[in-house]
Amino acid sequence: MLTISNINPLPNQKLILTLETKETIIFELRFLPTQNSWQGAITYKNVPTMRFGFVNTVNLLRQFANLIPFGLMCFSEDGYDPFQITDFSINNGIAPRVTLFILNKTDIATYNQIAYEEI
Predict the structure, then answer these.
(1) Is the pTM of this model over 0.85?
(2) How many angstroms separate the CA atoms of 89 and 98, rounded?
(3) N or C: which end of the chain has fewer CB within 10 A?
(4) Radius of gyration, alpha carbons of the chain
(5) Are 43 and 49 in contact (CB under 8 A)?
(6) Averaged pLDDT score across all residues of the chain
(7) SS3 letters for 20-56?
(8) What is the per-residue pLDDT for 93?
(9) pLDDT one-digit tens code per residue, 59-105
(10) What is the distance between the alpha carbons of residues 106 and 64, in angstroms, rounded to a whole number?
């Protein structure tokens, strides 16, 4: 599991992330102030770009499980979905309210078993 820690409080961001397998993905984030929400997109190899809204869940990319070997966890201690532009960023030395994690296949299997009782 890798923590995504280089997110800034900017409305549009594009990050290149390296997976544990040394493959890269393009990770785009967009804050929509009129909706108080974050939208995301991931581009991986020749798979069509995957778009999603950020919610507090064990795997935002579960619907793409047959296309990609990784997942994306969105976790907030308070249980609320991301709704502020500062939710993913470190603010005055204080940890972000919401943390994003890239999950590998083992992480996905573990969280699926816990959350969905899959064996």
Answers:
(1) yes
(2) 8
(3) C
(4) 14
(5) yes
(6) 93
(7) CCCCEEEEEEEEECCCCEEEEEEEECCEEEEEEECCC
(8) 81
(9) 999 999 999 999 999 999 899 999 999 999 988 788 999 999 999 99
(10) 16
